[in-house]
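Escalated from tier 1: guanine holo job.
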Amino acid sequence: MKLIDGKLIAAEIREELKKEISELIKKGKNVPGLVTILVGDNPASEIYVRNKGKACEEIGMRTKAEKRSADISENELLELVNHYNKDNNYHGILVQLPLPKHINEDKIIEAISPKKDVDGFHPISVGNLVIGKDTFAPCTPAGIQELLIRYNIETKGKHVVVLGRSNIVGKPIANIMLQKKEGANSIVTICHSAAKDLAHYTRQADILIAAIGQPNFVKADMIKEGAVVIDVGINRVEDSTKSKGYRVVGDVDFENVAPKTSFITPVPGGVGLMTIAMLLKNTFKAYLMFGE
Ligand code: GUN
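Tier 2 regenerated the structure:
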């Protein structure tokens, strides 16, 4: 069993981007920029957005944090998005989700220019991913593929079983692994809560990707000997021995599953840390494709 170190790979990616940006600065060129838009005061969202801004600053990327109160109107938010669609200093626009109930999330996502859709949530980006065109893939699934590539894990012809069908992870990772491209070209099965016997599918996986949001759901008897296990879950479970009163665990019963695997991602320290690194990579890509 070998641990897949998301922290290490995320740091590697940030370092590569930092170098590229310092080259741009040396040449006197504009640098890539990311604007984050946060509405309301959800404490978790505030932390996520702050971390995204910090990550930009650390690699020399321009960043701006727009914050609006929860009572902003849908039209005002649309205007703000439109403002940044036209601002050439910002190549990526990230509207942190969830948004307050009175705002239609789909409408806001669809207002973001597909050229600046570094989250990969716009229906045009989703469609381009499905038909295999170069596009912005959502950051967490893009991070999973990056881990597989950087650990030289063979994916061609391998059976990838995805647990979960969310628009943020399950569906996009299935589409990514299906592409006839390097780091993909897999046989893909998506399973979900309606399956009568989930283990029937998961036991066939050469690469199992768990993204269902249920703590310790995947047990040792659900996987094949030597499988690669990617754990996307971030679940809080009560733990009175911790000062916060909880600890974070994945969707996989790590202790019992790990010895059976060839590779496994830990939680924390696995996939989670890749999301921001891939957001930076997508922003750099937006700059190269449409900006400067
Ligand atoms: N909320 C939780 N995760 C994400 C994400 O990856 N992007 C955005 N925009 N909002 C989120």
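DSSP finds ten helices and eleven strands in the chain.
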